[in-house]
Write a structure and sequence with these properties.
323 residues; alpha/beta; 13 helices; single chain; 6-stranded parallel β-sheet; globular
Length: 323
């Protein structure tokens, strides 16, 4: 916490100094995760461009996302940049943001956020930055392919602490899903980078001419390359993650399994293109969908429980009609 407090204090001082100069122009996001930062930039895109506002960023992580949408004139990088080797998400708790909240549209996951104009924004970005797309990525434009992204931290199916409750502990069924899709003569691109444990395991397990890895196709994991693939893919399948936010706005079919119901992903119920398959959890003689609220209750009260992940058969039943 000291690290976050220290950098938060320096950034707050920076904000105080620039506040008078840019008060009417500054705008920034309340949440620093990838998915919600992406949503924030789309929702506030017109305001930032038309009113020449400046999006404040605190890290190179945010800069990468912001640069996909905006030019340098619309981005204000603070004097102090948060170190990349610390997760940025917790920094949010140490920043003072009262002066900007009324000027920005924050994501509200209780309401439908998708609008057709959002597709136009993303399509225009692809047109404007088409020359930046890696040729190995462009190769897939007229191919039939699906995207796969899997959260995997360990083999403990009963680990419900933090984002572990959205992982797939047993990758055997993932291997089977990949084999099933490949047999349909459909190419697969595994999303994620070397920091994602599942990517390395899948790569060491499979050798197939129709199985590709994003980390190899786009060495810098460029967001414009990701945007391109999400636009032209057949559908996306895997773990519930902000990694799918581009496909979500392109209204692609998404098959998300082994998840945990929260206030954020509850929005999926409002969209027919998202097939949401949460884990089951058994506790106090009942079997229910896994939710963050239930996980917190179990952990806080040390209640015995057992988690049931989604079966291979149930997942295949959902996707086979779209292959």
């Amino acid at each position: 916490k000291f690290i976050y407090f220290f950098f938060g204090s320096l950034i707050n001082l920076n904000l105080y100094i620039i506040k008078k100069k840019y008060s009417s122009k500054l705008i920034y996001n309340e949440n620093l995760s990838f998915g919600e930062s992406f949503i924030f930039n789309i929702l506030n895109y017109k305001s930032i461009i038309d009113k020449k506002k400046k999006l404040i960023i605190f890290s190179n992580f945010e800069k990468k996302i912001a640069s996909l949408f905006f030019s340098r004139e619309n981005i204000h990088k603070t004097f102090i940049i948060f170190p990349k080797f610390f997760p940025i998400y917790q920094l949010n708790n140490f920043l003072k943001k009262d002066f900007q909240k009324k000027k920005a549209i924050q994501p509200n996951f209780h309401n439908k956020i998708f609008k057709k104009k959002h597709i136009s924004i993303l399509n225009n970005i692809l047109i404007e930055k088409y020359e930046q797309i890696n040729s190995r990525i462009e190769f897939f434009k007229n191919k039939k392919f699906v995207l796969v992204f899997i959260k995997h931290y360990n083999k403990d199916h009963n680990n419900i602490d933090g984002s572990h409750n959205r992982q797939t502990s047993d990758l055997t069924k993932v291997f089977s899903i990949i084999k099933f899709i490949l047999k349909k003569k459909v190419k697969i691109i595994i999303m994620g980078d070397e920091a994602d444990k599942s990517v390395n395991i899948i790569e060491s397990h499979f050798k197939n001419k129709d199985l590709f890895f994003f980390k190899n196709l786009s060495p810098n994991q460029a967001l414009i390359d990701q945007l391109f693939l999400n636009k032209y893919s057949q559908f996306g399948i895997g773990s519930d993650s902000g990694a799918w936010i581009m496909s979500f706005f392109f209204q692609k079919k998404l098959f998300l399994f082994d998840s945990c119901i929260s206030s954020n992903n509850g929005l999926y119920k409002k969209y027919k293109n998202v097939f949401f398959m949460p884990k089951k959890i058994v506790y106090e003689n009942k079997t229910v969908n896994q939710t963050y609220k239930i996980c917190s209750k179990i952990l806080n009260n040390k209640i015995p429980y057992n988690v049931i992940e989604i079966s291979y058969e149930k997942i295949i039943k959902q996707i086979k009609k779209y292959l």
